[in-house]
Amino acid sequence: MTIKCDKCNKDAIIYQKYSGMHLCRKHFTEDVERKIKLTIRKHYSIKRNETIAVGLSGGKDSSTTLHILHKIFGMRPDIRLVGISIDEGIEGYRPQTIESAKELTEELGIELMVRSFREEYGKTMDDIAPMQREKGACSYCGVLRKSLLNKTALQIGATRLAIGHNLDDEAQTVLLNHLKGDVSRLVRMAPPKELEGLVLRMKPLRQIPEKEIALYAYLHDLPLGFGGCPYAHEAMRKEIRTLLNDFEVRHPGTKYALLSGFDKISGILGKEFPQEGLSNCRVCGQACTGEICQACKLLGRIQ
Ligand code: SF4
Questions:
Q1: Whole-prediction pTM value?
Q2: Which of 61, 191, 213, 243 has CA atoms 20 to 30 A from the CA of 163?
Q3: What is the Å distance from ligand 1's center to 55 Cα?
Q4: What is the 3-state secondary structure (H, E, C) of the chain?
Q5: What is the CATH number of the domain that holds 70?
Q6: Which residues, including other chains, have CB under 8 Å from residue 250's CB and lie 6 or more apart?
Q7: Per UniProt, where does ATP bind (predicted)?
Q8: Residue 291 within a domain
Protein backbone atom coordinates (compact mmCIF):
# COMPACT_ATOMS: atom_id res chain seq x y z
CA MET A 1 0.00 0.00 0.00
CA THR A 2 1.37 3.42 -0.91
CA ILE A 3 1.37 6.16 1.69
CA LYS A 4 -0.48 9.34 0.73
CA CYS A 5 0.54 12.96 1.10
CA ASP A 6 -0.92 14.61 4.21
CA LYS A 7 -1.88 17.68 2.14
CA CYS A 8 -3.50 15.98 -0.89
CA ASN A 9 -4.25 12.50 -2.11
CA LYS A 10 -1.12 11.93 -4.19
CA ASP A 11 1.59 9.39 -3.33
CA ALA A 12 4.02 10.63 -0.70
CA ILE A 13 7.72 10.69 -1.60
CA ILE A 14 9.08 11.69 1.80
CA TYR A 15 8.27 11.37 5.48
CA GLN A 16 9.53 14.27 7.58
CA LYS A 17 9.98 12.64 10.96
CA TYR A 18 10.56 16.00 12.65
CA SER A 19 7.21 17.43 11.41
CA GLY A 20 5.25 14.16 11.27
CA MET A 21 4.24 14.96 7.65
CA HIS A 22 4.15 12.73 4.56
CA LEU A 23 4.54 14.90 1.46
CA CYS A 24 4.12 14.34 -2.28
CA ARG A 25 6.51 15.84 -4.82
CA LYS A 26 4.52 19.08 -5.21
CA HIS A 27 4.04 19.70 -1.49
CA PHE A 28 7.62 18.74 -0.67
CA THR A 29 8.89 21.27 -3.23
CA GLU A 30 6.54 23.93 -1.85
CA ASP A 31 7.67 23.18 1.70
CA VAL A 32 11.38 23.59 0.85
CA GLU A 33 10.82 26.80 -1.13
CA ARG A 34 8.52 28.28 1.56
CA LYS A 35 11.16 27.71 4.26
CA ILE A 36 13.85 29.31 2.10
CA LYS A 37 11.72 32.38 1.35
CA LEU A 38 10.98 32.71 5.07
CA THR A 39 14.69 32.47 5.93
CA ILE A 40 15.53 35.19 3.40
CA ARG A 41 12.75 37.46 4.69
CA LYS A 42 13.68 36.91 8.34
CA HIS A 43 17.47 37.12 8.19
CA TYR A 44 18.46 38.92 4.99
CA SER A 45 16.26 41.74 3.82
CA ILE A 46 17.07 42.11 0.14
CA LYS A 47 16.64 45.67 -1.06
CA ARG A 48 16.22 47.07 -4.55
CA ASN A 49 19.17 47.05 -6.96
CA GLU A 50 21.22 44.41 -5.14
CA THR A 51 23.79 42.12 -6.75
CA ILE A 52 23.74 38.65 -5.20
CA ALA A 53 26.86 36.57 -5.84
CA VAL A 54 26.40 32.84 -5.29
CA GLY A 55 29.38 30.70 -4.32
CA LEU A 56 28.83 27.89 -6.80
CA SER A 57 30.86 24.74 -6.25
CA GLY A 58 28.64 22.74 -8.62
CA GLY A 59 27.45 20.36 -5.89
CA LYS A 60 23.85 19.86 -4.72
CA ASP A 61 23.79 22.59 -2.06
CA SER A 62 25.16 25.49 -4.07
CA SER A 63 23.26 24.43 -7.21
CA THR A 64 20.01 24.34 -5.23
CA THR A 65 20.83 27.77 -3.77
CA LEU A 66 21.30 29.27 -7.23
CA HIS A 67 18.25 27.49 -8.66
CA ILE A 68 15.97 28.78 -5.88
CA LEU A 69 17.40 32.32 -5.83
CA HIS A 70 16.81 32.40 -9.59
CA LYS A 71 13.22 31.24 -9.00
CA ILE A 72 12.68 33.98 -6.40
CA PHE A 73 14.61 36.88 -7.95
CA GLY A 74 15.02 35.85 -11.61
CA MET A 75 12.08 38.01 -12.73
CA ARG A 76 13.30 41.10 -10.85
CA PRO A 77 15.16 43.35 -13.30
CA ASP A 78 16.77 45.26 -10.40
CA ILE A 79 18.38 42.14 -8.87
CA ARG A 80 21.49 40.74 -10.50
CA LEU A 81 22.59 37.15 -9.81
CA VAL A 82 26.17 36.06 -10.52
CA GLY A 83 27.75 32.66 -9.86
CA ILE A 84 31.33 32.48 -8.57
CA SER A 85 33.16 29.15 -8.78
CA ILE A 86 36.51 28.68 -7.12
CA ASP A 87 38.82 26.14 -8.67
CA GLU A 88 41.08 25.01 -5.82
CA GLY A 89 43.02 22.72 -8.16
CA ILE A 90 41.95 19.27 -6.96
CA GLU A 91 42.42 16.78 -9.78
CA GLY A 92 39.72 14.17 -10.24
CA TYR A 93 37.21 16.20 -8.23
CA ARG A 94 36.90 19.91 -8.97
CA PRO A 95 36.98 19.92 -12.80
CA GLN A 96 33.72 17.92 -12.94
CA THR A 97 31.91 20.16 -10.45
CA ILE A 98 33.04 23.31 -12.30
CA GLU A 99 31.64 21.77 -15.49
CA SER A 100 28.28 21.28 -13.70
CA ALA A 101 28.39 24.91 -12.53
CA LYS A 102 28.95 26.05 -16.13
CA GLU A 103 26.06 23.96 -17.43
CA LEU A 104 23.67 25.18 -14.73
CA THR A 105 24.49 28.88 -15.18
CA GLU A 106 24.20 28.56 -18.96
CA GLU A 107 20.80 26.91 -18.57
CA LEU A 108 19.57 29.66 -16.23
CA GLY A 109 21.18 32.47 -18.24
CA ILE A 110 23.33 33.59 -15.29
CA GLU A 111 26.85 34.95 -15.54
CA LEU A 112 29.58 32.72 -14.01
CA MET A 113 33.02 33.81 -12.87
CA VAL A 114 35.63 31.10 -12.35
CA ARG A 115 38.65 31.99 -10.20
CA SER A 116 41.48 29.61 -9.38
CA PHE A 117 43.94 29.14 -6.53
CA ARG A 118 46.70 28.75 -9.14
CA GLU A 119 46.06 32.21 -10.63
CA GLU A 120 45.52 33.90 -7.29
CA TYR A 121 47.98 32.16 -4.98
CA GLY A 122 50.37 30.47 -7.42
CA LYS A 123 49.56 27.09 -5.84
CA THR A 124 46.79 24.52 -6.09
CA MET A 125 45.37 22.40 -3.28
CA ASP A 126 47.14 19.44 -4.89
CA ASP A 127 50.40 21.35 -4.20
CA ILE A 128 49.40 22.43 -0.68
CA ALA A 129 47.76 19.23 0.64
CA PRO A 130 50.92 17.06 0.82
CA MET A 131 52.68 19.79 2.87
CA GLN A 132 49.86 20.01 5.39
CA ARG A 133 49.74 16.85 7.43
CA GLU A 134 49.41 18.71 10.72
CA LYS A 135 46.59 21.23 10.17
CA GLY A 136 44.81 19.28 7.47
CA ALA A 137 44.13 20.41 3.91
CA CYS A 138 40.62 21.67 4.70
CA SER A 139 41.87 24.40 7.07
CA TYR A 140 43.89 25.87 4.21
CA CYS A 141 41.33 25.27 1.52
CA GLY A 142 38.43 26.78 3.51
CA VAL A 143 40.25 29.98 4.43
CA LEU A 144 41.75 30.55 0.97
CA ARG A 145 38.45 29.86 -0.79
CA LYS A 146 36.52 32.18 1.54
CA SER A 147 39.03 34.94 0.93
CA LEU A 148 38.95 34.55 -2.86
CA LEU A 149 35.15 34.40 -2.88
CA ASN A 150 34.94 37.64 -0.90
CA LYS A 151 37.54 39.34 -3.09
CA THR A 152 35.76 38.33 -6.30
CA ALA A 153 32.35 39.33 -4.93
CA LEU A 154 33.76 42.76 -4.03
CA GLN A 155 35.30 43.13 -7.49
CA ILE A 156 31.96 42.57 -9.22
CA GLY A 157 30.17 44.97 -6.85
CA ALA A 158 28.12 42.28 -5.09
CA THR A 159 26.11 43.38 -2.06
CA ARG A 160 25.51 39.78 -0.89
CA LEU A 161 27.37 36.53 -1.07
CA ALA A 162 25.08 33.49 -0.86
CA ILE A 163 26.54 30.16 0.19
CA GLY A 164 24.91 26.73 0.26
CA HIS A 165 25.20 25.84 3.95
CA ASN A 166 22.28 23.61 4.92
CA LEU A 167 20.72 22.79 8.31
CA ASP A 168 23.18 19.92 8.91
CA ASP A 169 26.20 22.18 8.26
CA GLU A 170 24.84 24.88 10.54
CA ALA A 171 23.88 22.53 13.41
CA GLN A 172 27.30 20.83 13.17
CA THR A 173 29.09 24.18 13.28
CA VAL A 174 27.09 25.38 16.32
CA LEU A 175 27.94 22.19 18.22
CA LEU A 176 31.56 22.16 17.02
CA ASN A 177 32.14 25.73 18.19
CA HIS A 178 30.57 24.95 21.57
CA LEU A 179 32.76 21.88 21.99
CA LYS A 180 35.85 23.90 21.10
CA GLY A 181 34.74 26.79 23.32
CA ASP A 182 35.22 29.05 20.31
CA VAL A 183 32.89 31.94 21.17
CA SER A 184 34.21 34.32 18.51
CA ARG A 185 33.35 31.83 15.76
CA LEU A 186 29.91 31.35 17.29
CA VAL A 187 29.39 35.12 17.23
CA ARG A 188 30.45 35.21 13.57
CA MET A 189 27.72 32.67 12.72
CA ALA A 190 24.99 35.16 13.62
CA PRO A 191 23.21 36.96 10.75
CA PRO A 192 25.82 39.38 9.41
CA LYS A 193 26.19 43.08 10.07
CA GLU A 194 27.49 45.55 7.52
CA LEU A 195 31.30 45.64 7.73
CA GLU A 196 33.30 47.60 5.22
CA GLY A 197 35.39 45.35 2.98
CA LEU A 198 33.29 42.24 3.63
CA VAL A 199 30.37 41.28 1.43
CA LEU A 200 27.30 40.35 3.52
CA ARG A 201 26.86 36.60 3.61
CA MET A 202 23.56 34.84 3.28
CA LYS A 203 22.69 31.17 3.83
CA PRO A 204 19.26 30.62 2.29
CA LEU A 205 19.34 26.83 2.93
CA ARG A 206 20.11 27.03 6.66
CA GLN A 207 16.66 25.64 7.60
CA ILE A 208 16.70 22.71 5.15
CA PRO A 209 18.11 19.29 6.17
CA GLU A 210 20.84 17.96 3.89
CA LYS A 211 18.79 14.91 2.87
CA GLU A 212 15.97 17.17 1.69
CA ILE A 213 18.38 19.27 -0.38
CA ALA A 214 19.60 16.06 -2.03
CA LEU A 215 16.00 15.03 -2.79
CA TYR A 216 15.09 18.53 -4.06
CA ALA A 217 18.18 18.57 -6.31
CA TYR A 218 17.35 15.10 -7.64
CA LEU A 219 13.70 16.03 -8.36
CA HIS A 220 14.75 19.20 -10.19
CA ASP A 221 17.59 17.65 -12.22
CA LEU A 222 20.23 19.67 -10.44
CA PRO A 223 23.81 18.44 -10.05
CA LEU A 224 24.23 16.10 -7.08
CA GLY A 225 28.02 16.30 -6.80
CA PHE A 226 30.70 13.87 -7.83
CA GLY A 227 31.88 11.64 -5.04
CA GLY A 228 33.93 13.23 -2.34
CA CYS A 229 36.96 15.46 -2.24
CA PRO A 230 40.06 13.28 -1.72
CA TYR A 231 41.27 15.57 1.11
CA ALA A 232 38.03 15.60 3.13
CA HIS A 233 38.93 14.39 6.58
CA GLU A 234 38.04 16.97 9.16
CA ALA A 235 37.93 14.33 11.91
CA MET A 236 36.01 16.22 14.57
CA ARG A 237 33.29 17.43 12.18
CA LYS A 238 32.85 13.85 10.94
CA GLU A 239 32.31 12.66 14.52
CA ILE A 240 29.80 15.45 15.13
CA ARG A 241 27.96 14.65 11.90
CA THR A 242 27.58 11.00 12.97
CA LEU A 243 26.53 12.01 16.47
CA LEU A 244 23.91 14.49 15.26
CA ASN A 245 22.53 12.08 12.65
CA ASP A 246 22.21 9.48 15.39
CA PHE A 247 20.42 11.92 17.66
CA GLU A 248 18.13 13.01 14.83
CA VAL A 249 17.00 9.40 14.31
CA ARG A 250 16.28 8.89 17.99
CA HIS A 251 15.06 12.43 18.71
CA PRO A 252 13.66 13.96 15.50
CA GLY A 253 14.06 17.72 15.37
CA THR A 254 17.42 17.82 17.18
CA LYS A 255 19.15 19.74 14.37
CA TYR A 256 16.36 22.32 14.20
CA ALA A 257 16.41 22.67 17.99
CA LEU A 258 20.17 23.27 18.03
CA LEU A 259 19.96 25.98 15.38
CA SER A 260 16.89 27.73 16.74
CA GLY A 261 18.41 27.74 20.25
CA PHE A 262 21.50 29.38 18.78
CA ASP A 263 19.37 31.95 16.89
CA LYS A 264 17.68 32.90 20.16
CA ILE A 265 20.93 33.61 21.99
CA SER A 266 22.98 34.98 19.09
CA GLY A 267 21.82 38.59 19.68
CA ILE A 268 22.91 38.44 23.34
CA LEU A 269 26.21 36.81 22.36
CA GLY A 270 26.86 39.58 19.85
CA LYS A 271 26.38 42.23 22.55
CA GLU A 272 28.51 40.43 25.16
CA PHE A 273 31.27 39.60 22.70
CA PRO A 274 31.28 42.36 20.04
CA GLN A 275 33.26 41.54 16.93
CA GLU A 276 36.54 43.37 16.55
CA GLY A 277 36.60 46.21 14.05
CA LEU A 278 38.17 45.49 10.68
CA SER A 279 41.35 46.87 9.22
CA ASN A 280 43.10 46.14 5.94
CA CYS A 281 45.57 43.28 5.65
CA ARG A 282 49.13 44.64 5.29
CA VAL A 283 49.90 42.05 2.61
CA CYS A 284 46.83 41.75 0.37
CA GLY A 285 44.68 44.69 1.49
CA GLN A 286 41.56 42.59 2.19
CA ALA A 287 39.46 43.40 5.26
CA CYS A 288 40.49 41.45 8.36
CA THR A 289 40.88 41.63 12.12
CA GLY A 290 44.51 42.23 13.10
CA GLU A 291 47.34 43.23 10.81
CA ILE A 292 47.52 40.24 8.49
CA CYS A 293 44.53 38.24 7.25
CA GLN A 294 44.20 34.49 7.84
CA ALA A 295 44.74 33.69 4.15
CA CYS A 296 48.05 35.59 4.03
CA LYS A 297 49.19 34.01 7.30
CA LEU A 298 48.53 30.53 5.90
CA LEU A 299 50.15 31.39 2.58
CA GLY A 300 53.19 32.68 4.49
CA ARG A 301 53.61 29.23 6.09
CA ILE A 302 53.75 27.40 2.80
CA GLN A 303 55.81 29.81 0.74
FE1 SF4 B 1 38.69 21.90 0.24
FE2 SF4 B 1 38.47 20.19 2.32
FE3 SF4 B 1 36.32 20.86 0.86
FE4 SF4 B 1 38.25 19.32 -0.19
S5 SF4 B 1 36.89 18.81 1.55
S6 SF4 B 1 37.22 21.05 -1.19
S7 SF4 B 1 40.07 20.20 0.75
S8 SF4 B 1 37.54 22.23 2.17
A1: 0.93
A2: 243
A3: 14
A4: CCCECCCCCCECCEEECCCCEEECHHHHHHHHHHHHHHHHHHHCCCCCCCEEEEECCCCHHHHHHHHHHHHHHCCCCCCEEEEEEEECCCCCCHHHHHHHHHHHHHHHCCEEEEEEHHHHHCCCHHHHHHHCCCCCHHHHHHHHHHHHHHHHHHHCCCCEEECCCCHHHHHHHHHHHHHHCCHHHHHHHCCCCCECCECEEECCCCCCCHHHHHHHHHHCCCCCCCCCCCCCCCHHHHHHHHHHHHHHHHCCCHHHHHHHHHHHHHHHHHHHCCCCCCEECCCCCCEECCCCCHHHHHHHHHC
A5: 3.40.50.620
A6: none
A7: 55-57, 61, 86, 164, 169
A8: no
- Residue of 85, 96, 125, 163 to test ligand 1 pocket, by largest number of atoms within 8 Å of CB: 125
Q: What is the dihedral of CA 16, 22, 28, 34, to 10 degrees?
A: -70
Q: Which domain holds residue 132?
A: 26-273
Residue 244 lies in a domain: yes
246 alpha carbon to ligand 1 midpoint, in Å? 24
- Nearest CA residue ID for atom 7, ligand 1: 138
Which residue's CA is minimally distant from atom 8 of ligand 1?
138
Closest CA to 216 of 66, 44, 106: 66
| Tens-digit pLDDT profile for residues 91-133 | 988 999 999 999 999 999 999 999 999 999 999 999 998 886 6
pLDDT-flagged residues of the chain (< 70): 132-134, 191-196, 226, 234-235
Our count of domains for the chain comes to 1
Answer whether residue 215 is part of any domain.
yes
Show the ligand 1 pocket: residues with CB < 6 angstroms: 88, 125, 137-138, 141-142, 229, 231-232
